[in-house]
Amino acid sequence: GPNGLAAAIRLAEAGRRVQVLEAADTVGGGARTAELTEPGYRHDVCSAIHPMAISSPFFRSLELGHHGLEWVHPDAPLAHPLDGEPAAMLFQDVDATAATLGEDGPRWAKWMNTWAPRWEGLCADALGPLGIPSHPFWMASFGLSAFQPATRLASSMFRGTEAQALFAGLAGHSVLPIDMAPSSAIGMMLGIAGHAVGWPMPKGGSQSIADALVEHLESLGGTVQ
Questions:
Q1: Could you tell me the pLDDT band of residue 13, with boundaries at 50, 70 and 90?
Q2: For the chain, what is the radius of gyration of the CA atoms?
Q3: Greatest pairwise CA separation for the chain in angstroms
Q4: What is the mean pLDDT of the chain?
Q5: Interatomic CA distance for residues 202 and 40, integer angstroms
């Protein structure tokens, strides 16, 4: 998968001879694309949308576009349907998102306009190795909200169902019950990412990420078996 291939690339960059052993028929792990239904129709086996991949400081250092990786940005990456009401929508534009959130639009805009400009530093600290963060005050402020259950944070910040539902949908990606800590952390990261860099999909499916990593590894002399 991307983590193993990233480790292999780092070793190859350090001058080591690297061979990756893959037990499956294709590389990629959770970033694979296959004909799961009908011939010619390719579907992502696991992950499909990758805001953290386009944000990854390590991935950006590799210039994977030179190896065929191309990002596609939908106009509206996320819609949360509501019974009998217009859907709550996440756009990269904060104001466009706020316009779908009723009375909570200004609160959402104020919240995300605080964090979206900090995304690069927040992302580097959150995705980096454990240690003293480069932006300790940002991380401390983020943690005060992020380590709450999503239900508590949403009900304390928003009054209407639109913003609460949108945040619940984001926090659901934590694969935790949203009334359990720290489900807010994933919800916040994905929401901020949606405004800072979008929620892109790799053209050709998630396999494109793995294929680009393999091609880069091979350019450094590494091999995959």
A1: very high
A2: 19
A3: 60
A4: 95
A5: 18
Q: How far apart are CA 76 and CA 210, in angstroms?
A: 25
Q: At residue 16, what are phi and psi to the nearest 5 degrees?
A: -85, 155
Instruction: Name residue 202's beta-bridge partners.
Output: 71
Residue 78: CB partners within 8 Å, gap ≥ 6?
Answer: 89, 90, 166, 169, 170, 194, 199
Q: How far apart are CA 135 and CA 137, in angstroms?
A: 6
Say whether pLDDT at 57 is over 90. no
B/e letters for 165-180, b = 16+ CB within 10 Å, e = fewer, are bbbbbbbbebebebee
Give the predicted TM-score (pTM) of the model: 0.89
Q: Is residue 126 pLDDT above 90, yes or no?
A: no
Query: pLDDT exceeding 70 applies to what percent of the chain?
Result: 100
| Through-space distance between the first and last CA atoms of the chain, rounded to whole angstroms | 13
